[in-house]
Design a protein that fits this description.
Blueprint: H1 6-14, H2 20-32, E1 50-51, E2 57-61, H3 69-72, H4 80-91, E3 112-116, H5 129-145, E4 151-155, H6 157-169, E5 185-188, E6 191-196, H7 201-206, H8 211-227
Helix pairs in contact: 4-8, 5-6
Length: 229
């Protein structure tokens, strides 16, 4: 895929219907809704990235949540994972407020841009390898358009592997395949990848990911920016 700017990329992305299983699921969820949101109009389409287009830090997630981004139309917005992520971004100085509930809620990001490896909500939050690979074309087109991006914070192993695949397609080949782990760090071409456990309820409720842990990853991202200034 090739796009001249992010607006053109997002226009194509929102209209994408490449993956029949994901199209069927995202639209089914948007029709049937969750009882708590029965009076809301669901987005029910691919969810574009969000943030500062001059950002040096790019946060990469797995995919939108069925009743989060698939409902609100904004990545990591309206679900528990997003509550954790945006609170942490606010503490780190990358967001002007600690909450992200819906479009038009006043949220803005500074020096941070949030994207995903897969832009449609998948059943059971598990895209297939084929769905991942089809959607990675958007990430491969997106990264060169984010001309100041230097640090990629990968939320979970799926995002870590997806980012590596996308960078490899852009000609950035690591010397050896870096392994994902929390606080893992790898230089790939002009980028530094930072690993962070995904802020899913499974991780945050069990204490596998704490506020201090995600704060430390974002603090390291800030350090890397200062080192490369």
């Amino acid at each position: 895929m090739h796009f001249t700017d992010l607006d053109a990329l997002n226009t194509a992305l929102v209209a994408c219907r490449q993956c029949p299983r994901l199209v069927a699921w995202r639209e089914q969820v948007a029709r049937e809704k969750r009882a708590a949101f029965r009076d809301e109009d669901y987005w029910g389409r691919p969810v574009p990235a969000f943030g500062d287009r001059a950002a040096r830090v790019v946060v990469c997630g797995l995919a939108p949540a069925a009743h989060g981004g698939n409902r609100t139309g904004r990545v990591f917005t309206g679900d528990r994972s997003g509550d954790w992520l945006f609170a942490a971004l606010h503490r780190a100085g990358f967001a002007n407020q600690p909450t992200s509930t819906h479009k038009g809620d006043g949220l803005s990001l500074k020096d941070c841009y949030i994207t995903a490896c897969v832009h449609c909500a998948p059943p059971a939050n598990r895209p297939t390898p084929e769905e991942r690979d089809r959607c990675l074309g958007y990430l491969e087109a997106e990264l060169p358009l984010l001309k100041k991006a230097r640090v990629l914070v990968c939320l979970g192993g799926f995002a870590w592997d997806g980012a590596l695949r996308g960078l490899r397609a852009l000609g950035h080949e690591p010397e050896s395949k870096p392994r994902f782990g929390h606080a893992a760090e790898a230089t790939v071409g002009p980028y530094v990848l930072l690993g962070c456990y995904h802020p899913s309820q499974q991780n945050t409720f069990t204490g596998r990911l704490t506020e201090a842990m995600i704060d430390a990853v974002l603090a390291r991202a800030r350090e890397l920016l200062n080192e490369r200034a």
